[in-house]
Every structure is written in structure tokens, then in C-alpha cells.
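Example 3.2
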Amino acid sequence: MRVARLLVLSGVFALVPSCGGSAFSSGGSTDGGNGSEGGRSDAAGVEAGPPLEAGPVGTYCGPDIVCTGTGMQQGSVCCITSNNPPAYGCAGANCGCDTQLDCSSDAECGALRCCIRNATDSACSGGHWVARCAADCVGGFHMCVPGAGAMQCLVGQSCSMDTSNAGLPPQSGFGICK
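Structure, written as C-alpha cells:
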């Protein structure tokens, strides 16, 4: 069943057909925020990850959005479209063929790791990227918070904002251990 999704792009609402998944609601706009509200910025002013200070518990979902399932959000799952610019939203269950984050760092996984893998899905040609808590990240990438210290990654690895091979938009605050 195809469901239309409501996206908020620079304050404009748009219905977008989904690819076999549930609808999602946006937790904020994608107007290129500089990270001063919901995250940390590095010296170049680029969003550098989820906020470290106390705030809403949920899944970091790009600039100025944390999916908590409260307010107008449908749930705590982050959905990221591969549009240019990418669109970020919150869903209650899954994201169809869009990148889906059930977690964005180990902080949401207890004793497990937050791992992103390209999942096989018959409804999505080429599969789609899904991040979930797991015991190991074999066949995928370990997600991390850029700038939060080296202890997040295995010895010999560091947290990189180069997420181009992990289905995540560049310079949007996400990191993977490399």
C-alpha cells in the first residue's frame, strides 16, 4: 500500500508518495540550519552531531530535529530522503525506501552499538539504509557522534563525518567509525 508523506521543506508543506512505508512527520525544517540550536558546530560552522546537553530523549535526525514521538511527530524513527537537499522526518514504524534510523549513536542502544547497514527490501530496488542497535556492525558501519571523543569507536578508528558510503547526507551531524 502506498501512503503519502508530509514533508516540511523550508516551512512549506508537501505531500510526497512513499515507497511501501509509513507516513512520517517532520520534526523541523530543512532550511540549512547552522547547528546553533540543536547540535554542536565545528570551527567551520558545520553541524557536528546531536546535542550533548540534556534535552529530549529520542533519535537525532539531522539539523535541529530529534525524533521523540511527541508533539506533531508520529514516532521516534528518523527518516531521511535522498533528495537534494535531503528531507528529515519522524515516523512511528518504518521509512519505506528512505534511510531509516532507529538509533543515531550508541547512547540510544544501552550495551549495544548503533549500526547502519544497507538492508535488502523487495519494495526498494537496491535496498535502503537502516540503523539499528546490534551487538556488532559486521557488514555495515558503526554510527558515532562527531566531536564526542574517540571512546565511541574501536581502537584504531575515529568518528568521521564522511558518511557518503553509509546512506547518510554529508555534513548533517552524523558520523561513522572509520
